[in-house]
Design brief:
Blueprint lengths: L2 H36 L9 H40 L5 E4 L3 E3 L4 E4 L8 E7 L5 E7 L6 E3 L12 E11 L2 E7 L1 E12 L2 E6 L4 E3 L5 E3 L4
Antiparallel strand pairs: 1-9, 1-12, 2-7, 3-6, 3-9, 4-5, 4-7, 7-8, 9-10, 10-11
Helix pairs in contact: 1-2
Pfam families: FlgD, FlgD_ig
Function: Required for flagellar hook formation. May act as a scaffolding protein.
Organism: Rhodobacter calidifons
């Protein structure tokens, strides 16, 4: 069975059940109010103002529930619109600071050294967080071809790597930030926190973190 169909059916059922529950609760409230009136002390009847307060309170809660339901419906529609727009990104290359999928070929990085730095060092860690390379590069915002060499100069194995650019002034590190690069988008999916893009290798990145988009190169 298609999971998306099941999820949609459950959502519709939940939304349909909400108004029914409100109606049921309102009818229950009216019955309780009627019983309260029938069993009140004739010598000390309940002030009509109290009934009005109770009814107004319940009515306010009912309206709040309906408002929350409406907002949830609107949020769902906005997410669907955003997801439809992002679907046009699939197949393109997005620039972000997501981890890098290295498969033996050079990867073009977009370094951005901090202002005032006189040295720039690429720090590469594998998926387990282990340091596998430190490489000094020019202090420039020009694209840089990372060859995927380890500390010993040998090519790193295929895998996912996190690359950080350390900006140095002399021997002092003044800044450290993930390096941006381009990667192909293979999927766009929505969630309660926004649209997530899935890059080659299953790497996920928030759509909001994408800083540039281009057609596939090569």
């Amino acid at each position: 069975m298609d999971i998306s169909t099941v999820s949609s059916s459950m959502y519709v059922a939940q939304q349909s059940a909400a108004p029914s529950k409100i109606t049921s609760d309102f009818n229950t409230f009216l019955r309780m109010l009627t019983v309260q009136m029938q069993n009140q002390d004739p010598l000390k009847p309940i002030d009509s103002a109290d009934y009005a307060v109770q009814l107004a309170t319940f009515s306010g809660v009912e309206q709040q529930v309906r408002t929350n339901q409406l907002l949830a419906d609107l949020q769902s529609k906005f997410q669907q619109l955003g997801l439809a727009e992002m679907a046009g990104w699939v197949g393109k290359e997005a620039r972000s600071n997501a981890p890098v999928l290295y498969e033996g070929s050079p990867i073009t990085l977009s370094p951005n050294p901090a202002v005032g730095s006189d040295r720039a060092v690429l720090v590469v860690r594998d998926s387990a967080g282990r340091l596998v390379s430190r490489e000094e590069i020019p202090v420039s915002i020009e694209p840089y071809q990372w060859l995927g060499a380890g500390i010993d100069g040998a090519p790193l194995p295929t895998g996912t790597y996190t690359i950080t650019l350390e900006s140095m002034r002399g021997d002092t590190r003044i800044d450290a930030r993930p390096v941006e690069h381009y990667a192909r988008i293979v999927e766009a999916k929505g969630s309660s926190t926004g649209t997530t893009l899935v890059l080659r290798g299953g790497i996920e990145v928030p759509a909001s973190s994408v800083t540039a988009l281009r057609s596939p190169q090569g």
